[in-house]
Design a protein that fits this description.
Number of helices: 6
Shape: globular
Strand order of the largest sheet: 2-1-6-5-7
Largest sheet: 5 strands, parallel
Radius of gyration: 15 Å
Strand content: 15-25%
Order of helices and strands: EHHEEEHEHEHEH
Structural class: alpha/beta
Helix content: 25-40%
Distance between the termini: 22 Å
Length: about 160
């Protein structure tokens, strides 16, 4: 894939929350002008049943995790493995720094940077093992989902794009 403007896709169970951010202010103007290509993918579009189920009990414990199939199917709909770089916000990931944002920006110019927002107690570990290229942490604290970190990553990467 040739170099192009930054391409980011955010996979989430809360698309309205994410859309409200990426359609306003600096990011919104950059998307509208074509300087950025940011899309939001509703994970429930890939639910395993008509009820929109995307979660299940994790194997060996009582907590709920996002199932394997919905995020995997969402990834496959976005780009094939060679055309994407998957980031999963997670407390055990590497801490987001300016240097990491710059690396992710470079990646986003040649591959689709896909940020998968976990929820509940995370995602099925098989999803991480099979699909995630990088786990990223915002710091030494826990949030209720991956949307806020996804927006922080998107903002940090986007502001590096020329004209944004």
């Amino acid at each position: 894939m040739s170099e192009r403007s930054a391409g980011i896709a955010i996979v989430t169970a809360f698309p309205d929350l994410v859309r409200s951010y990426i359609t306003t202010s600096v990011i919104g103007r950059a998307v509208e002008s074509g300087k950025l290509d940011v899309s939001v993918v509703d994970i429930r579009d890939y639910a395993v049943n008509e009820y929109g189920q995307i979660d299940d009990y994790s194997f060996g414990s009582g907590g709920m995790v996002m199932m394997l199939q919905p995020p995997e199917q969402a990834l496959d709909a976005i780009a094939d493995k060679s055309g994407r770089h998957v980031v999963y916000p997670s407390p055990q990931g590497v801490t987001l720094t300016q240097a990491l944002a710059e690396d992710l920006h470079r990646v986003s110019r040649t591959k689709r940077l896909v940020i998968v927002c976990g929820h509940y107690e995370g995602v099925d570990e098989r999803f991480v093992e099979r699909n995630v290229d990088l786990e990223v942490s915002m710091g030494d604290f826990v949030l209720t989902g991956g949307e806020l970190p996804a927006l922080a990553i998107t903002d940090a990467v986007s502001r590096l794009e020329r004209g944004v």
